[in-house]
Amino acid sequence: MAASGAKNKQQQRAAAAGGAGRRRRKVPDAEEKSWQKAGLKLNEEISSDSDAESPAFGGKRKKDNEAEEEIEETAQEKKLRLAKLYLEQLRQQEEEKAEEEALEKDLVAGRLKEDVLEQKGKLQRLIAKDLQPPDTAAIRVLRGHQLPITCLVISPDDKCIFSAAKDCSIIKWDVESGKKLHVIPGGKKGTEAQHIGHTAHILSMAISSDGKYLATGDRNKLIMIWEAVTCKHLYKFTGHRDAVTGLSFQKGTHQLYSASHDRSVKVWNVAENAYVETLFGHQDAITGLDSLSRECCVTSGGRDGTVRVWKIPEESQLVFYGHQGSIDCVQLINEEHMVSGADDGSVALWGLSKKKPLTTVRQAHSNHGAQGLEQPYWISSVATLLNSDVVATGASRCSHSASVRLWKCGEGFRRLEPLFDIPLIGFVNSLKFSNAGDFLVVGIGQEHRLGRWWRIKEAKNSICIIPLQRTAAGSAQPADGS
C-alpha cells in the first residue's frame, strides 16, 4: 500500500507539471533501465586512468541532451524573460545617462570656474611649454597692399583677417586659402567728400567680439565703422583733433574706445552711432590702446613715459611708470596683467595692482650699430595670447635676424623667458594671435607705422601667417601673480 501511494503521488506531480503547460517526452522503461545500468557500470569501472566513454553510454546522453533541448518555453516564462531583459536595458540606459550628466556637469562646472577666473584676471592657460619653433617653409605670405601694413585684426572665428596700410586701403583675407575676399580701396587726398573710405594713412583697427562691426582710424582724425561681413560702410565718427592711433571694442559689447595723438581717449556706442564721453590725462601723444571685458581700457603714452588704466564708470585713471623711452605699444594678457614695449628696446610685464613693472627685459631684441655706439632695436608691436602665458614682440630689423620673438610669462608673471625667434625682414608693425592660438599673424612694412624715420628697402609690405605647433594641449590653472 505504501509503494502504491508513493506511485500515485508521483503521477499527480507529473500531471500538475503537465497542467502548467510544459510537456516532457516520457522516457521508455527499457531505456531508463539501460541508463541506470550503464551508470552503475560506469561507477564501478571508473579509475584514475581516463578510459574512453562507452558508445552505448555516449549515445544515451546525447539523446537525453536532445530531449532537454526540445523542452519548450511557456508564454508566461517568455514574458518574464523579456521583462527582465527590458529592465536590464533600462538600467544600462539610466547608468549611461547618469554618466553623461555627470560628465556634462563637470564640464559646465569647469567652464564656469574658468569664466570666474577670467573675470578676476587669474586664469592662465599654460601653453608656452608646448610651443615649438615653426618651420619657416610653412609661413604663408600674403601680398596686396602697396605701402607698409600698419594694423590688422582677426575675426572671432579665426576664418578672416582684416588688414590696413599707409595706402589707405582695407583688405579682407580668407585665412585658409589666403585669397582676398574684399578690398576697400583708399582715396586720394582731397576726395574725402566723394570717396567712401579712408584718404589718409590708416593707423588703427578693431573688430567687435561678435564679429559684427569693424572700426578703423586714420591720420586724418576719422573713425570709420564697417559691417565686418560685407565690408559695407556704416558710420563715420569725428571728434578727435589728431591722428587716431588706437581702437578697441569692449569684449561682449559694442562699446568702442579710441585713442589719439591729441592725448585723449574717447568712448563711443557703435550700435547706436553715438558719442559717449572723452577722457584726458596723458601728457603726450597716445600710441596704443587695448581693452577686454571690464569697462576699462589701457593706453600707452608715448614720450610721457606712462601706461595708464582708465576706469570708465569712475572717470578715473591709474598711472604706471617703468620704461625709459617712448612707449609705443601695449596689450592686456588678462584682466589683471599687461605687457608693453618701447623704443628703448625694453619689454615690461605689469600687474594692474602695482605701479611698477613686475619684470622688465632690456634690449629685448638686442642692439645694432658700431661698437660703442650700439642702439637697441625698437619694440614696434606686442601681442598676447589671451589668458595664457605666451607673449610675442616685434622689432625693426634690416637683416635676416629675428624680428618676432615669443616669450613665456613665468613665475606668476614675474619673469619673461624667451622661447624662440621667427626670422623676418622689416618693421613688425602689427602682431595678432588667433583666438584659438593656432597661428600668429604679422603685419610687415618697410617703414614704422607712425612715421618714416628710416626705410628698409629689402622688406616686403606683406602679411605673414605663422602656424604655431604644440607638442600637447596646454592646461588651464589659476595664475598666482599679482
Structural commentary:
The chain is of the alpha+beta class and 482 residues long. The protein contains 4 helices and 34 strands. The strands form 9 sheets. Strands 3, 26, 27, 28, 29, 30, 31 and 32 form an 8-stranded antiparallel sheet that branches.
Summarize the structure.
The protein is 20% helix and 38% strand. The protein has 482 residues and is of the alpha+beta class. The longest helix has 46 residues, at 75-120.
N→C terminal distance: 103 Å
Give the percentage of residues in beta strands.
35-45%
Low-confidence stretches: 14-28, 30-57
Report the C-alpha radius of gyration, rounded. Answer: 39 Å
Percent helix range: 10-25%
Given helix and strand content, the structural type is: alpha+beta
What's the helix count?
4
Major beta-sheet overview: 8 strands, antiparallel
> What's the rounded overall pLDDT mean?
83
What characteristics describe this protein?
alpha+beta; 34 strands; single chain; eight-stranded antiparallel sheet; about 475 residues; globular; four-stranded antiparallel sheet
Would you spell out the secondary-structure blueprint of this structure?
Elements lengths: L1 H18 L9 H17 L9 H15 L5 H46 L2 E4 L4 E2 L7 E3 L6 E6 L5 E6 L4 E5 L5 E5 L17 E6 L5 E6 L4 E5 L4 E6 L6 E6 L5 E6 L3 E6 L4 E7 L7 E4 L4 E5 L5 E6 L4 E6 L5 E8 L2 E6 L4 E5 L7 E3 L5 E2 L6 E2 L2 E6 L5 E8 L4 E9 L4 E9 L2 E8 L5 E7 L16 E6 L1 E2 L4 E4 L4
Antiparallel strand pairs: 1-34, 2-33, 3-32, 4-5, 5-6, 6-7, 8-9, 9-10, 10-11, 12-13, 13-14, 14-15, 16-17, 17-18, 18-19, 20-21, 21-22, 22-23, 24-25, 26-27, 27-28, 27-30, 28-29, 30-31, 31-32
